[in-house]
Design brief:
Elements (H helix, E strand, L loop, with lengths): L2 H22 L5 H6 L6 H12 L2 H14 L4 H25 L4 H8 L3 H33 L4 H51 L4 H4 L12 H11 L12 H16 L2 H4 L8 H19 L2 H17 L6 E2 L5 H7 L4 E3 L7 E2 L9 E3 L4 H8 L4 H39 L5 H24 L5 H25 L5 H25 L18 H18 L6 H10 L12
Antiparallel strand pairs: 1-3, 2-4
Helix pairs in contact: 1-8, 1-17, 3-8, 3-13, 3-17, 4-7, 4-14, 4-17, 4-19, 5-11, 5-13, 6-7, 6-19, 7-8, 7-17, 7-18, 7-19, 7-20, 8-17, 8-18, 10-14, 11-19, 11-21, 14-16, 16-17, 17-18, 19-20, 19-21, 20-21
Length: 568
Amino acid sequence: MDIQTLTFLIVGVTFALYIGIALWARAGSTHDFYVAGGGVNPVANGMATAADWMSAASFISMAGLISFMGYDGAVYLMGWTGGYVLLALCLAPYLRKFGKFTVPAFIGDRYYSNTARTVAVICAVFVCFTYVAGQMRGVGVVFSRFLEVDITSGVIIGMAIVFFYAVLGGMKGITYTQVAQYCVLICAYLVPAIFISIMMTGHVIPQIGFGAELSDGSGTYLLDKLDGLSTELGFAEYTSGTKSTIDVFFITAALMVGTAGLPHVIVRFFTVPKVRDARKSAGWALLFIALLYTTAPAIATFARVNMIDTINGPDAQGTAYEQAPSWISNWESTGLISWEDKNGDGKMFYSGDERNEMKIDRDIMVLANPEIADLPAWVIALVAAGGIAAALSTSAGLLLVISTSISHDLLKRNLMPNITDKQELRYARIASAVAICIAGYLGINPPGFVAQVVAFAFGLAASSFFPAIILGIFSKRMNKEGAIAGMISGISFTALYIIYFKFINPAANVPENWLFGISPEGIGTLGMVLNFVVAIVVARYTADAPKDVQQLVANIRFPKGAGEASAH
């Protein structure tokens, strides 16, 4: 059976599974739609959280980044992993105790202001749409290669699937669908990694194979071979960094604190019955996430070595285009790989200098990895299903946050307080449908490659939500004026910086033009600092928060009891 047929079969089975779960877990109330009724088992919630967390950026793009960037790509591993730990251990218990299942609800009530709530809704929608653009691009990349449809058609198919289970099932349908999606994506990630590790190093565990000797009898370590290949071909040494220390610090910090402000992850801690269960699910999620994140460097290295060897040939002099391995022609049809015969010898050659004749999109590395290693067709099809599962699971979580922010926080709490539960549910579904259409447009016309777009979303979350949440929990005196001024300042500065260098004047996007040497991917950290400074200064010269709010903050600081999620 060929790859396309197997892909249709495996992807079709997974889609049927997701739709079946959505029908079984259909939301019957806003409580089901927003927090899955608050009755999800901690282990299942841990899987759902991991699927929500491990987006197309983690599954498709992160190993690709590491494969192309080498040591510098470690910032994504450190930032995203450290950020989840920060969220799970330092913020989640307090937010769970507060009992509001959305970030705008927390900010609106903590800062006793509908204006603060509205600003938070705008920030949440902005962050989520930026993030979901990366996910929809991931869906398009997978479909364009494995189902042999154009990226636009692929995004539309993905939209239809997400629309079905997000609009119908809400958080209840999404949660149990994400449990299935986690199982699919982690198998799809680990199976080829294990096969390739055995083939290249003789080790079953990819994490060990990553640092082991090659099994070809040469006595050469895998990373030593890649360092040698990289320097010979004009690339930077794979295991050494080229980014400045300050940029590495700021990117890592932006990813970490941006994690703590991502609304689609925070809401996960309200789908379990008790605060204790929230802690348990956080621990399970960390374990499930670690399975993928510790495997990513190994996959990046395996794919890099195999890619260079198959393109440049065993003698490192290039491979005749007519004799090119099938994976190159397969991906050429998507436009994500291209060859230009610069010297007219009819041979492909890949390098980091003027000899280079290959243009390769980094987003394909994980998806093409099994083909490059010549693994069985069923493994290639499984990876396609995993990439789709990763993109759709996070897309659904983000779209739910957008619909919740609009229907619950903007309409119910601000503009239309007298609407019934049934009307609120209807508005939530309408908001989901509109959000999916906008997300699809962004997927068809993405502002960058997957992980880059997602990094921008984390920077925006870091500069807007994180200071407001931290000050809301740990500063009794912080008032609405300070929080509102801080959020507006932080996200405005960060968004303008990113927009300038990425869209208005991309030619100027070089280190010597960056503020303090900080790239657009890391500017969210500086935006966060600005948010903190503005919030604290404004709060100092305005009235303190009311006494009842200060007492509420004191109660949050000592999480006790179940902390039932509230829709009020």
